[in-house]
Write a structure and sequence with these properties.
Helices cover 52% and strands 0% of the residues. By secondary structure, the chain is mostly helical.
Length: 67
């Protein structure tokens, strides 16, 4: 995905969606009932890292995901 062409608000929205999905998944104790599987699909974390890099490059303030 070409994050450099996206607006900062769009990047933040995507990043926040990943963070929220992770919060939901982590709040469920039974692994097979986690609706998003954020920790199962490693490419999601890779996407979050790529968005972080772009936000950092633009000096945008945001709260980083703690994996």
């Amino acid at each position: 995905m070409k994050y450099e062409k996206m607006t900062a608000p769009m990047l933040l929205k995507l990043y926040d969606a990943i963070a929220e999905a992770l919060r939901v998944d982590d709040g469920i104790t039974v692994a097979e009932h986690r609706p998003y599987g954020v920790r199962v699909f490693h490419d999601i974390q890779e996407q979050a890292c790529a968005i972080e890099e772009e936000l950092d490059r633009r000096n945008v303030n945001y709260t980083k995901i703690v994996w």
